[in-house]
Amino acid sequence: MLSKALTLFGLLATVLVATPFASAAVVIPQHVQPVRHGEAIGITPHDKYSSSVGVLGCKIDINRVAYWPSSVSCNDICVRVTSTATGRSVTLLKIDQSGGAHDISYDAYAYLQNGIGAASPVVGGAVDATYEFVDPEECRGLVHTPDGNLPANSMNFVDSCKNVGDNFQLWNIADARCQWGEDVMCNFPDLAVTNQPDCGEGHTLGIQTGLLEGGLSVVDVAYPV
């Protein structure tokens, strides 16, 4: 059940938009995807954070993200990837959709091979691995919000997960890389009445104030050149 899958560790979307139902880059399936165990894939490195459902990179561990061909699902949001060669595993937030590759954050890609991560650079192409979707509780440590709720800014994502909508937490941050907005939590709206969150007196929804000077910048780990 969707609500059970997300509330096991408070993995609830944080959302903010200034216009009705801002579009996302993915189509969220309305059915529950089957859990898959030990499926073989070739993983490749990804060194620039993004999220097709607008998860806020400044409030999660961007070094543990999966960028995969399948659409982002409210249920299958936490995945464990295991290297076939080394047996090492990493747990990742599956919050972006790729054009075809099974990309993962570069630091995670390096860790699976060397047990250290990007601090000991690794270069190369696809690495054989297996994956399985796991209990969202296993991704709890990757979310850096005060109450462990997953932050995002796509109203399409929220609407697709609306049966847990009452539990969503909102932030007045406009983009996934946290460059613009205001680091303020907002109240989730009653979508039957309005889709405009209430950020409280004195706060402007969708404000475009620069956030980089406030310590919310997203710092990518670059692939070696």
TrEMBL record:
Coiled coil: none annotated. It comes from the Eukaryota. Keywords: Signal. Residues 1-24 form the signal peptide. The keyword Cell membrane does not apply. This is Cerato-platanin. It comes from Pseudoneurospora amorphoporcata. The lineage of its organism: Eukaryota, Fungi, Dikarya, Ascomycota, Pezizomycotina.
